[in-house]
Amino acid sequence: MDKIGKVYIIGAGPGDPELITAKAIRCLKEADVVIHDYLVSREILRHASTSARFIYAGKQGGDHTLSQEEINRRLVEEARRGHTVARLKGGDPFIFGRGGEEAEELARAGIPFDIIPGVTSAIAVPAYAGIPLTHRGLTSTLAFVTGHEDPTKPASDIDWTALAKIGSLVFLMGVKNLPEIAARLVEQGRDPATPAALIRWGTTPDQETLTGTLADIAVKAHAEGFRPPAILVVGEVAGLRGRMNWFETKPLMGRGVVITRPEAQADEFAALLTARGARVLRFPTIAIAPPERWDALDAALARLATYAWIVFTSANGVRFFFHHLRETGGDIRDLKGIRLATIGPATAATLEAMGLKVDLVPASFLSEGVVAAFAGQDVAGKAVLLPRAAEARDVIPEGLAKMGATCDVATVYRTVRSDRKKEELAAWLADGKVDVITFTSPSTLTHFRDIMGPEFRLPPAVRIACIGPVTAAAVKCAGLPVDILQETYTIHGLVAALEAHFSSP
């Protein structure tokens, strides 16, 4: 008999991709097949193995891609084929997530499974709206209620009389039945003036909160066109939001920021933006590849001891240089006696993480700044190695040559166009999700234009941000505006400039 696989029924959390648990990530990485719901973000799916096969089982506004019966069947079928299956569900799988039904089906079929609890939206969404569900002096009782019962049931299972006496109530999936929910509670004695809050797309940069009372929340929701997915909170605790609204006040809240730098280098930028409430849209226009030939670097490594300095102009240059050094039998000990310079602190940090001391970092994080920094060094008659990208300006080798140094340039990586499609960005633009497109190098712009094509026109409301004057010059040369250009040419500086731009009146 063939080996039977295993199913992980995983709670992915409420929407914020950082609220997924460490155990959920570990199990997701093990999966051969990922069956995921509509509310599971792409950021979470990135934790899966690159070889994993994805099956979308989303349910949106009554439109079911796969019926529950079909999902159950696929879980059993994939496991019987020997696959490790991650059944990835929004929130917690056992809180109105039908995870219990799926577990029962697996048990009947003799399929081993684990349950990985998740942060339920019933708790997380009110917290992100600044609403504590329990609070001393206000309430010590709490109930979670489905706002959308199974329509095939002959009668409601909800005890409205009992619910009306509970301090805090959280209704999930209750937007469509909001008038009935409010009316039922008032009928059973709940004060119509009881505070209420409706929270849409909770824990995400699209979060919106509508406040009112039981008497008027349904009218307000209709007037605002408030649509699912949303959670309703009823109780005195909802009145605390005015003092505790922490998430929706973040400086970049709801601002859509497109990151065009390579996928592998986008994490720090994305984390800084997310921490400020931005909607991060990853659209890497370039990928980093090794050079077509290693001849120049091989020749330099053969005479490595003759160099007085090595100048690194990017973290990519550091990674590719040392990877090839190791591949050819060398290691960092071969750099003994060689001084190191970098174009900026990020590149320096990459070297320092390897235990290497950086001797020179310019005050201005540009090639011109590197040359200026070397003006205070005695480099006449000395050899300098410059490992860099295939296409780069010659400011550093020309500047060092004028100082009497010999500068050997070795290509250690190149930028190539990514496989992203213009339709993806076009859809974000059409949905109004983009506020700013960021460029961190001339190559990100070059390949952006290549991907989008000559007919692409930037919507007037969308801004362009650049990490430094060299990139800004390339953007202007392409006939595009530069709306945001920071003084400190680092990712932290770019984030600060975005924050300043969108905070100004």
Supply database-style keywords.
alpha/beta, Methyltransferase, Cobalt-precorrin-4 Transmethylase, Domain 2, 5-stranded parallel β-sheet, 5-stranded mixed β-sheet, 33% helix, Cobalt-precorrin-4 Transmethylase, domain 1, 505 residues, Rossmann fold, 22 strands, 19 helices
What would you note in describing this structure?
The strands form five sheets. A five-stranded parallel sheet has the order 3-2-6-1-7, sandwiched between helices. The protein has a five-stranded mixed sheet with strand order 8-9-12-10-11, sandwiched between helices. It is elongated and about 90 Å long. The longest helix has 13 residues, at 68-80. The chain has four domains: 6-118, Tetrapyrrole methylase, N-terminal domain (Cobalt-precorrin-4 Transmethylase, domain 1, 3-Layer(aba) Sandwich); 123-244, Tetrapyrrole methylase, C-terminal domain (Methyltransferase, Cobalt-precorrin-4 Transmethylase, Domain 2); 256-285 and 420-503, Rossmann fold, CATH 3.40.50.10090; 289-416, Rossmann fold (3-Layer(aba) Sandwich), CATH 3.40.50. The protein is α/β, with parallel strands linked by helices and 505 residues long. The chain starts with 5 loop residues before the first strand and ends with a helix. It contains 19 helices and 22 strands.
